[in-house]
Amino acid sequence: MTIEAFPPGLLLILGAVLLLLLRGRAREAVTLVLPVAVLAHLWTLPDGVLLQFSFLGMAVEPLEVDALSRLFATIFAIMAAAGALYAIRQSRFLEIIAAYIYAGGAIGVAFAGDLITVFVFWEVMALASTMVLWAAGNENAWKASFRYLMIHLLGGVVLMAGIVAHVQAGNGTDFVAMKPEDVGTWLILIGFLLNAAAPPLSAWLADAYPEASPGGMVFLSAFTTKTAVYVLLRGFPGAEILVFVGLYMVFYGIIYALLENDMRRILAYSIVNQVGFMVTGVGIGTEMALNGAAAHAFAHIIYKALLLMSAGSVLHMTGKRKCTDLGGLFQSMPLTTICGIIGALAISSFPLTSGFISKSMIGQAAVDSNMAVVWFLLTAASAGVFLHAGIKFPWFVFFQKDSGLRPKDPPLNMRWAMILFAFLCIAIGVFPGTLYALLPYPVDYVPYTAPHVINILQLLLFSGAAFFVCLPMMKRTLTISLDFDWFYRKFFGILGKEFSYLGVDAYAAAWTALERRLERFITRIFKHHGPAGVMARTWPTGSTALWMAILLLVYLLLTYV
Description:
It is built from 21 helices and 2 strands. The chain has a two-stranded antiparallel ribbon.
């Protein structure tokens, strides 16, 4: 195998393992350089299938390069580098190693040319992301990680069953566009959607991600759901059901984010909301929509990480995550506040930010496809995004009442990571052509037209006015928002306990019955073979000789006969 044919995802995974051999400054230096080296390597790869072999009679292509795979691998590598810069001094080193394996799995999926490779790296991501959660080192993270792993192993089983059924139907293992027509493709689609946090099994995201460390949640926000968007773009472009699934996710995320009091759970539900825009674009299926979904995934990784970096900095410096415990932090954390506001503007599609030049492509695709209802719902959802992530998060965390807290901005490495992503949010928004050039299809779209800019500004203006008019209703209290996870956290837990109790009772009854049978059996044996038993009695010598003679005679007769 030449270096040209070496999978970049595997390079990052092996590099993460080798980091265990280093110590001190050398390990920190290699940690920061490793994802940059992977980024440089993946941009040296030519298009086409660069590595292939046969496994159990099936074609395996671990490295197939095109514009779409290179786009997602690029942002995954950038995210790994910035996430490591943010977390390197504040997180356990095990967390960064697990995060690199996690990112390597995501890059491996991006370059997979067959479903077998997709599945292998898919499971690597599930295990490594669970390790990222474990690395937080607290009881809540430990419990959440088991629920998280349970859901993702279920998704892996569904995906594997779908791949087997797909191959058995004679369709091969090539990872190409499919239609959900048979059992295999439907199971594959469900497996992909589970990682995208599509309802009803979407609560795992808001349940698990906020329990990670500040750096851990930054890593978790980038890979699982966006890898799911990638495989949907690759495997199910134009599947109409995804339009409905995506719209459901959009409003689901908004409603739960507006109800939430925990700043990191607000941003977690916002991930579901933003992925909903991408899934809708995949469902529309035109080149404009697919470009928009891919561009929005790229932009979203950056501005969502920036928002979570600012929230993580607040958590790191104050130890608090409830909006009701925060406020007035702009006075002592100016850089964190500015970066949080830039991320909030980007997620709200404010002009001159990355969200403006990516999300609008999906809306334009709905217009071009004469989907008036879809366009209207996406526009309404954009207003909702501004309400919960564009205003609610920065207002309640950095402004509103004065909480009396006066923490400083976070350590230097965390500040540099936030500055880098804040710069990218603005740079991509000001120079959209750079991102458009990386998209899988030629881009014939101009985001900065007077009607578009005016419409967005009007939408944001009235959304902001509505927020402050309804501010008394926006203030949260210490409440709990019930979601579908209640079933596997409470309902299934109760069922499990009941089955445990029944099982214990059944086990006790079975053991009691066994003891009685054994006691009767031993009693019978003792009756015949005990000191007073029939088999233990002494016989006279004459009787013994008589019986021996009889047995010998019978033996001789049988022998001659």
